Amino acid sequence: MIKIIVGTNRKNSLSHKLALIYQNSLKNLNTDAEILDLKDLPHDFLFSALYENNGKNPGFNDFHNKVKEGSKFVFIVPEYNGSFPGILKAFIDGMTYPNAFRNKKCALVGLSSGIGGGGIALSHLTDIFHYLGMHVLAFKPKLAKIEDSLSDNLLTNRLYMELLQTQAEMLIDF
Ligand SMILES: Cc1cc2nc3c(=O)[nH]c(=O)nc-3n(C[C@H](O)[C@H](O)[C@H](O)COP(=O)(O)O)c2cc1C
């Protein structure tokens, strides 16, 4: 079961919409995927689940266990201030080092309001995952000006849809 991680805790995020679209693409390829949305993290996790408190917050443990049991991941990563969201780094910092991600595989999707499509955010995240020993699929779609390409829950930009579809196929074979 592939885990799709929504890389922000913003309510009604476009990242969540993309996660649903991605999950559907995988379903069409006969592959099950579960969405983990960082907005569902316990609101106090920064001060109750990290470092010396590791393992003490049941809500965070549920997320942690799902990461530990997973072997392939998709990260939907919005560009915030020229990088990926801080909550995603804090979430990664709460995982057991180095085993939660080591020798696992992931695919990254970037999105932004501007013209970057989260390219720099994906580079930053790739550095971290390589440091942790996780293999990152080299094909990383960057969905720029995302608001122009999403209508309700549909990705209306045909190129973007093809990029996600191609990546989903590559991730299955990765
Ligand atoms: C805190 C914050 C910082 C942002 N910084 C950038 C940025 O540096 N470049 C950019 O193009 N868009 C930026 N945006 C816009 C987001 O990239 C855009 O709204 C996002 O891709 C949508 O993701 P979301 O709905 O999943 O949060 C920012 C948005 C937020 C909330």
Automatic annotation (TrEMBL):
One of its GO terms (cellular component) is cytosol. InterPro entries: FMN_Rdtase-like_dom, NAD(P)H-dep_reductase. It holds the Pfam family FMN_red. It comes from the Bacteria. GO terms for molecular function: FMN binding; oxidoreductase activity. Residues 3-137 form the NADPH-dependent FMN reductase-like domain. PANTHER family: CHROMATE REDUCTASE (PTHR30543), NAD(P)H-DEPENDENT FMN REDUCTASE LOT6 (PTHR30543:SF21). This is NADPH-dependent oxidoreductase. It comes from Arthrospiribacter ruber.
